Amino acid sequence: MRISVIGTGYVGLVSGACFAEIGHDCVCVDVDASKVERINRGDAPIHENGLDALLQRHVGTRLRASTDLCAAVLESSITFIAVGTPFDGTRIDLSYVREAARQIGTALRNKPGFHTVVVKSTVVPGTTDDVVAVELERASGKRAGVDFGVGMNPEFLTEGVAVDDFMRPDRIVIGGTDARAIAAQREVYAAFATTPTLETNNKTAEMIKYTSNSVLAAMISFSNEIGNLCDALGGVDVADVMRGVHLARYFTTTLADGQRVRAPISSFLWAGCGYGGSCLPKDTKALSAHGAAHGAPMPLLDAVIATNLSQPQRMLALLRRHFPELRGLRVAVLGLAFKEDTDDMRESPAIPIVRQLVEQGAQVTAYDPIAADAARKVLPDGVRYVQSLEQALQQVDAALLVTRWGDFQRVPALLKGRADAPVVIDGRRVIEPASVPRYEGVGRRALPTA
User: Fold this and answer.
1) Which is catalytic among the residues 18, 28, 273, 279?
2) Are 429 and 271 a contacting pair, CB within 8 Å?
């Protein structure tokens, strides 16, 4: 099948490369000529595990990038819209989606035969039918559902493991306004015949995406509220509490051979310094705003958002237990990206943490395995960046662990036996408290011993 994908961000480029991997011919379209040139060299412009290998395997055969949207649409039978939908605080910005729809519609004006246009960008319920279809009809002079199909196919990709998520999907949601739009998407995903697939209308497909992300955000913020209570009570460790919760049959299953397997979703029931990234913060805020605009306020979701916004402050509060005065304090921030396995700094908890440290006069040393270049664009001046965990832990008074990088499991070994070991403020609860000389963790406050 010949596929065109509009947009080469995390969703668009990963989807295009994976479409090629399952046997389709795909062209990815972007307005940035330098990015297009880079992709056509087989060099991924974003950090995503496995993506470079896919580009090197398929660029020049089943995969290419182009700045020519019209040609890409004319040469394909189905087009996926995968452009950005930023949130401005009141509503999501649909300008990129609208422009993509207009240009696709203009191309369809001169194209004979039926073509399917599928929205893959995350958009609030009603957007595909009330915005995209309308723009397509206006620009093409044709009718949706008759001359071309309109569908909605949400993505469920996690940055860092997006290629694996695409190639081993847990579900496929196909939205459409007519049978031909549904059938075209079914053909695209024919390689995943055993994957549970839900076919529905476009509005429901859009709602599934927002609901999925909001559930995960709610689990994280709930865990953080429990952690904050554990800290206030003292003598209760939220890590132990959540391990006990995870043992329930809802989260841990016993296999026929007696092996106990924990459900992946339980990882969201874990306290930390807050969620970030391009999805959970934006999608929860957008859904809440969308609900309010339609006369359906969402106080529970608003509380999820508020808890997350305040959570990075817990790191500073834990630090002040040891150092009430931060001016001149030497602080290492371990991890800058919003999560491991990515260099994405969007909405990262590290941003407010570092900014406040700098504002209050701390001397900040920062280390992230891959996100330093991206961090320099959003963090304040005065931060010292180092190239290794060893360097980060030298001559500092405190180390704040913000991102769950696997390399940070080496912290206890690096601090063992050091008389000048910094206090470790564990914002992800990945370090055993007794494994380092001085420890503070989110959701834990030990009672003083008699």
Assistant:
1) 279
2) yes
